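Duplicate of #3305? Posting structure anyway:
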């Protein structure tokens, strides 16, 4: 609950209409109404200003392959969870994974998820923030169509200092890996995010 409160993540139980302004979305018409789908509501903010609101659809609410959508008046923007230091920044594709990593590392390290945003046109403030960290760690998704792998290669071409890492064998991403490791009965061969991070720190510091 504290992670959701701090990062502004919430749950919308039913599809509804609301004024854009009540959701912190700027619109030329103050009376503009937007439709809020049912799902996990994830705001992308910069210095407390809401730039984008993305609603993630749980699997049982999905129709077709659509995993979620941005609210009207907002585009796809990176999701950012600021950490307490500037030693490590963890980059990934999914905002939910970024929130999970931030939570499991106790808010010490910054996490950023592209969440569908285009890397080629990454705003300068995000690029500056990424480069301000001593170590840039890109947690790669492993997709059957190769999209996650291509995203990782593209990111490291933009940020050559980045360390490109992948989840344990057999898992799509770190969120899936962590969730499996936390299931009972415990499988000590699987890594939680904290255990995975410790291995990352050792590898990065030894490089």
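Output from current build:
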């Amino acid at each position: 609950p504290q992670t959701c409160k701090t990062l502004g993540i919430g749950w919308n139980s039913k599809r509804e209409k609301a004024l854009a302004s009540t959701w912190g979305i700027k619109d030329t018409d103050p009376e503009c109404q937007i439709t809020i789908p049912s799902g996990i509501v994830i705001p992308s903010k910069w210095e407390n200003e809401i730039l984008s609101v993305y609603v993630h659809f749980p699997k049982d609410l999905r129709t077709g392959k659509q995993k979620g959508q941005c609210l009207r008046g907002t585009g796809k923007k990176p999701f950012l969870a600021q950490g307490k230091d500037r030693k490590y920044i963890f980059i990934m594709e999914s905002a939910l994974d970024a929130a999970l990593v931030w939570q499991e590392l106790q808010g010490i390290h910054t996490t950023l998820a592209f969440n569908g945003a285009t890397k080629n046109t990454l705003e300068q403030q995000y690029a500056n923030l990424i480069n301000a960290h001593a170590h840039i760690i890109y947690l790669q998704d492993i997709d059957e169509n190769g999209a996650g792998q291509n995203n990782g290669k593209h990111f490291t071409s933009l940020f050559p200092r980045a360390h490109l890492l992948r989840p344990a064998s057999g898992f799509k991403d770190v969120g899936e890996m962590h969730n499996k490791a936390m299931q009972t009965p415990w499988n000590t061969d699987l890594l939680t995010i904290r255990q995975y991070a410790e291995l990352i720190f050792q590898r990065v510091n030894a490089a």
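Confirmed duplicate; merging threads. Helices lie at 2-7, 95-104, 124-131, 147-158, 174-181, 193-206. The chain has a mean pLDDT of 89.
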